[in-house]
Amino acid sequence: MIEQINNILPQTQCGQCGYNGCRPYAEAIASGTADINQCPPGGDEGIVALAQLLNVNPKPLNPAFGEHKPKSVAFIIEEDCIGCTKCIAACPVDAILGAAKYMHTVIASECTGCELCIAPCPVDCIVMQPLPEPLSAAEKTTRAQLAKQRYEARNLRKQREEAENLERARQKKAALLKLKSAS
Question: For the domain that residue 139 is a member of, what is the CATH number?
């Protein structure tokens, strides 16, 4: 059931629902701790699909979680970018490219429109731009699945990096202890 709910969600990973991503929100819906009307990016269409899946009545989007907006993507005003990398760290689907002290850019086709890159930007060089044309249902589904894959790949990479960092720290500590005991 969790996977079916998660597949309905737009995979923006924005956290507007009050959960840290679409899957945690899907888990909360499945367990009955969250309502079906907390996802602004999913809008009425998402609420209706969740209601049908769960055999409950649809309800309006809860305004406490935000409002539904047309699909948009982040755009970096390149001449203002200072290359701080804060937007890269904030992007839940790795849709921003760049390196420290160099200009960054958004891969528009991969951007979910989550807006999580805006707040950490110290120079306010990120703006949201509406997509020129609305996406078809098939395009929405395809983009959501790709975003889900990118999000999961990013999470696996971050877990692997954390495990590698812990192992390096463990090895350094063991080497220091060995040096201390030898002296």
Answer: 3.30.70.20
> What pLDDT sits at residue 182?
80
Q: Are 80 and 126 in contact (CB under 8 A)?
A: no
Please list the residues that pair with 127 across neighbouring strands: 75
| Contacts within 8 Å (CB) and 24+ apart, 161-164 | none
Task: List the domain range (segments joined by +) for residue 134.
Answer: 70-169
Q: Which residue has the tokens 């990120």?
A: 126
Across the range 80-98, mean pLDDT stands at 95
Mean pLDDT of 12-30: 95
- 60 and 16, same structural domain? yes
Kindly report the pTM of this predicted structure.
Answer: 0.81
At 47, is the pLDDT very low, low, confident or very high (cuts 50, 70, 90)?
Answer: very high
One-letter amino acid at 179 equals L
Beta-carbon count within 10 A of 52 CB? 11
